[in-house]
TrEMBL record:
InterPro entries: SRAP, SRAP-like. This is Abasic site processing protein. GO terms for biological process: protein-DNA covalent cross-linking repair; proteolysis. The lineage of its organism: Bacteria, Pseudomonadati, Pseudomonadota, Gammaproteobacteria, Oceanospirillales. GO terms for molecular function: lyase activity; peptidase activity; single-stranded DNA binding. It comes from Halomonas stenophila.
């Protein structure tokens, strides 16, 4: 799953990586991003619009579901084309969530131990996500997850869909609307470039928000 992540790369670095203009409003470094908050994302608000940075609500609820509909934070890649809840957004409303890494918890004798996962070269990651209009304020989103691969599988059985750099433009391409067409040109990042280390259990509390959260600890 993906229930907590960090984004501390500055907007100019992320925008240069994507070849996009910088966002209108710069975000502040965040080391403990939790669901039910506004997060940075990249999307096409309209099919003929250029991709741009936007503020997205992390918690997905299609407008037709009403105010009482569920608001999942993740969507399983295996079910995107089968689920009525996610199908429309998968075909028409795909977006990217920039991150420097994400947290997962591995069960142990002393309780669950958090780990931070990121690229070995410490470059930004881009998580595949879907969006829908949200309460007349920009959009809401869910981060897509897939079975864990590589080092991530040693910690948890799921991980976010991290896209490789050559797939980012295609993921946002509004002309790609069919599952097989999307799968033929969109690929996840090679798991061999990921690394992970244990971090402080302070990350368990969303009130903790500082750079020390991503520092390795000795078990």
């Amino acid at each position: 799953m993906c229930g907590r992540f960090a984004l501390f790369s500055r907007p100019p670095a992320v925008s240069r990586w994507l070849g996009l203009p910088e966002p209108d409003a710069a975000w502040q470094p965040r080391y403990n991003i939790s669901p039910g908050t506004w997060i940075a994302g990249i999307r096409r608000a309209e099919p003929d619009a250029e991709p741009r940075f936007d503020r997205l609500w992390w918690g997905y609820r299609p407008h037709w579901a009403g105010q009482t509909g569920p608001e999942p934070i993740n969507a399983r890649a295996e079910r995107l084309d089968e689920s009525k809840y996610f199908r429309g957004a998968f075909h028409k409303h795909r977006c990217l969530i920039p991150a420097d890494g994400w947290y997962e918890w591995r069960p142990g004798e002393g309780g669950k131990q958090p780990y931070f996962l990121c690229r070995e070269d410490r470059q930004p990651l881009f998580l595949g996500a879907i969006w829908e209009p949200y309460m007349d304020e920009t959009a809401c989103c869910a981060i897509i997850t897939e079975p864990a691969r590589g080092i991530a599988s040693d910690i948890h059985d799921r991980m976010p869909l991290v896209l490789d750099d050559d797939s980012l433009a295609a993921w946002l391409d509004p002309t790609l609307t069919e599952r097989e067409a999307i799968r033929s040109v969109v690929h996840h990042l090679d798991a061999g470039v990921l690394t992970a280390w244990p971090v402080s259990t302070r990350v368990n509390r969303v009130a903790h928000e500082d750079a020390d959260l991503v520092e390795p600890v000795t078990l």
